[in-house]
Design goal:
The structure holds 2 protein chains of 2 kinds.
Chain A lengths: L1 H42 L11 E9 L5 E7 L3
Antiparallel strand pairs in A: 1-2
Chain B lengths: L1 H15 L4 H4 L9 E3 L1 E9 L10 E5 L2 E5 L5 E7 L5 E6 L14 E3 L2 E6 L4 E6 L11 E4 L7 E6 L4 E5 L6 E4 L5 E4 L12 H7 L3 E5 L5 E6 L4 E8 L2 E9 L5 E3 L13 E3 L7 E6 L3 E6 L4 H4 L6 E8 L4 E17 L4 E6 L6 E6 L2
Parallel strand pairs in B: 1-24
Antiparallel strand pairs in B: 2-26, 3-4, 4-5, 5-6, 7-8, 8-9, 9-10, 11-12, 12-13, 13-14, 15-16, 16-17, 17-18, 19-20, 21-22, 22-23, 23-24, 24-25, 25-26
Classes of the chains: A alpha+beta, B mainly beta.
Chain lengths: 78, 356
């Protein structure tokens, strides 16, 4: 009987932990999807190098949306 | 048996906890000497109603607001709050009298300046003359002597710049064409990198000098690195180097086939972005700090809700927390107020922050 109670408590803790982890990780999954979409759009032009300077506001060295390599107005991230 | 259960329990509890990288890497400067600011809403200027679209930076001088509009057909708009007139200057382009890519604005006396890192030209707009017929801003080419500058600010007849420099972090160029390089690169980045890689890593900066022209503040936008140097003649000497957080970026040490010094730098989604803008008074450096990550704020990392105040020796004096996310600040000495470019809810407004 005592063993069953311990297994029950252990299971509750295990599932609670998994549930909490799932809830907290939901937000970052959404962010990753957003970034994956941007990367997917960038991948469409397969003949050109993959753009690395995606957005603006900074000095970015890498590949712009037209496939040019150099220093651009943008930000590179992975 | 009991011990095993306890170990299992502890492991499960620890495993279920997620750490927040932002909190772990938050500088103590954000939590100390915090003050609230009072907003004077009467000074609110709605830039969209003036047809000023996507403004990124601005400076204020008296009744004039010079605004950087990087995505517009003209890169600068000057709004006169007394007359309500908006004057647009510097058409987009790479030809003479045109400009492409600017990331910051500087006010010195009655002159607004910005550096175009695409054409390598410093543009200067005289606020006393910009409305006169036929007025053209002054352009100064800094891509002389094989230099690749990324940012520049005028001292007097000399110009101080940063760029892909291997002889030093800063360069002072004289009208005669003589360039003087000084100061090692800051230690914020991986110290094993070459100076060329470091210059690319520290490319996006906002620069400011004090009124006596003997101190320089250089704040990095992508990393929280603030560099304060003393200017002596044509040489600089670092007097303080502040690192808000450690940068998280990947730099490709192998250059891809192409032109120039190109080493793609990609920032990690957990990288805490640095300073959005600087504005200075005779006594203080006001630094608008992002403290944001791509993971939490997507592409809104170029805005911030914190103003850190330092003296010209680099000592932290105060931290102001704002309610609006802002992309730019400008100190008005006559009013002892900071004006800020608020980007709250994607609405661009200039607001006034009364200092205590």
């Amino acid at each position: 009987m005592k063993r069953k109670v311990k297994i029950l408590i252990g299971s509750i803790i295990l599932f609670s932990s998994l549930f909490i982890n799932f809830i907290f990780s939901n937000k970052s999954q959404t962010t990753e999807i957003t970034f994956e979409n941007i990367e997917a759009i960038a991948d469409e032009e397969s003949s050109k190098p993959e753009p690395t300077c995606i957005t603006s506001g900074y000095i970015c060295t890498g590949v712009d949306k037209d496939g040019n390599i150099g220093t651009f107005y943008g930000l590179g991230f992975d | 048996m009991k011990t095993r259960y306890y170990i299992l329990l502890a492991a499960l509890v620890l495993g279920s906890c997620q750490s927040d990288p932002r909190i772990e890497s938050e500088s103590p400067l954000l939590r100390t000497k915090v003050s609230a600011l009072q907003y004077a809403q009467s000074e609110k200027i709605d830039l969209e109603s003036l047809d000023i679209i996507s403004p990124s930076k601005f400076v204020k001088k008296g009744r004039l607001f010079a605004i950087l509009t990087p995505n517009s057909a003209y890169r600068f708009a000057i709004y006169n709050s007394e007359t309500g007139d908006v004057t647009r200057l510097v058409p987009a382009g790479r030809n003479e009298g045109e400009g492409m890519y600017y990331i910051s604005l500087t006010l010195k006396g009655d002159t607004v300046s910005a550096f175009d890192f695409e054409t390598g030209r410093l543009v200067e707009i005289d606020l006393n003359a910009y409305t006169t017929t036929g007025y053209q801003p002054t352009f100064t080419d800094l891509k002389t002597g094989g230099k690749t500058p990324f940012g520049a600010i005028r001292l007097d007849e000399r110009i101080l710049s940063t760029g892909v420099y291997t002889q030093g972090r800063y360069c002072i160029s004289q009208p005669t064409g003589t360039d003087s390089y000084s100061v090692d690169y800051p230690l914020c980045a991986d110290t094993t990198m070459s100076d060329t890689l470091k210059s690319i890593f520290f490319a996006s900066n906002t620069l400011a000098v004090n009124s006596d022209l003997n101190r320089l503040a250089c704040a990095n936008m992508q990393t929280g690195c603030l560099d304060i140097c003393e200017i002596e003649g044509n040489e600089l000497e670092r007097i303080h180097e502040l690192h808000m957080t450690k940068a998280q970026a990947k730099i490709n040490k192998q250059r891809p086939r192409g032109r120039g010094y190109v080493h793609p730098v990609s920032y990690n989604r957990n990288n805490v972005f640095g300073f959005c803008d600087l504005t200075v008074s005779d006594d203080y450096i006001f630094a608008l700090y992002s403290g944001r990550t791509l993971k939490e704020h997507n592409l809104n990392v170029d805005k911030g809700k914190v103003i850190l105040v330092f003296n010209w020796n680099g000592s932290h004096v105060r931290t102001y927390r704002l309610t609006n996310a802002c992309s730019s600040i400008s100190y008005d000495a006559t009013e002892n107020a900071i004006y800020a470019l608020s980007q709250k809810n994607n609405k661009s407004e200039i607001i006034r922050l009364d200092l205590e």
